[in-house]
Amino acid sequence: QSALTQPPSASGSPGQSVTISCTGTSSDVGGYNYVSWYQQHPGKAPKLMIYEVSKRPSGVPDRFSGSKSGNTASLTVSGLQAEDEADYYCSSYAGSYSLVFGGGTKLTVL
Amino acid sequence: EVQLVQSGAEVKKTGESLKISCKGSGYSFSTYWIGWVRQMPGKGLEWMGIIYPGDSDTRYSPSFQGQVTISADKSISTAFLQWSSLKASDTAMYYCARPTLVQGAILRLDYWGQGTLVTVSS
Description:
heterodimer, A: 110 residues, mainly beta, six-stranded mixed β-sheet, 9 strands, B: 122 residues, seven-stranded mixed β-sheet
């Protein structure tokens, strides 16, 4: 399984919105509604932000939202805040008890 | 409160063996799958495999099949990741994570351990 494709970087000013894409294939992103997004601050473990394309775990601000169209999923962060600066990884179920991750996107809050 | 607590950092030499651990608490350990994720220095996340502690059913990512061994001891609520002969390329942070599955499909990784840094040098 090849990694999902994410842009290496994204940026926005405080209060703005930014969208990060995650492109896979019909065998992963396009084949299942099991796309998740994880936030990772430096030196920390990843944290689940979005699951099943667009659902938010308890405690995750509603500024974070997810969507999917075909083989591409997207994470949108609205009303950017300084603490949103982190690496973001998408993942998708890829069949047979396996997951595939994206290469990660470094989000910078300008 | 669900917690996954991993063993401490390791510094090893090439060719040595290693077993790192992930202890679960706050839930019924034997009835939830546990997965392992690798993160090489400055790189992204990679799925290694998953184990069901209740019956030790284990599934490996093709990239890691034969390279590592995933095991679990439900009597002590602990999952393990081990190497028989380390390589420099095994240098990485390793995370355990508890996934939610439905009929074999991994929906998400809800809980993560703090990570174990493995450094392998010659």
